[in-house]
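Please check both lines for our workbook:

___
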Amino acid sequence: MPNLQSAKKHLRSSERKRLRNQVHRGRARTTVKKARRLLEKGQLAEAREAVRIAVSALDNAAQKGVIHKNNAARRKSRLMQQLNQLERAS
């Protein structure tokens, strides 16, 4: 536990920020998982929509600073590659 008053305040503010960031990180993870699941099943129409939503969630998380912008770009790129492979196969 922190001893100094400023350290106690920093602990409180870090916890608030962690909870706020958790929302955006969780939303991004969930949408990416849903998109991947649909891509694996081969459901093209639903997968397109899910990928669009996942890309939006990743952009939002990167904009908020929850994940690094290059991390978001990498994940979006991999999702789009999977989607393109599925479209070519169909």
Q: What stands out?
A: The mean pLDDT is 96. DSSP finds three helices and no strands in the chain. The radius of gyration is 18 Å.
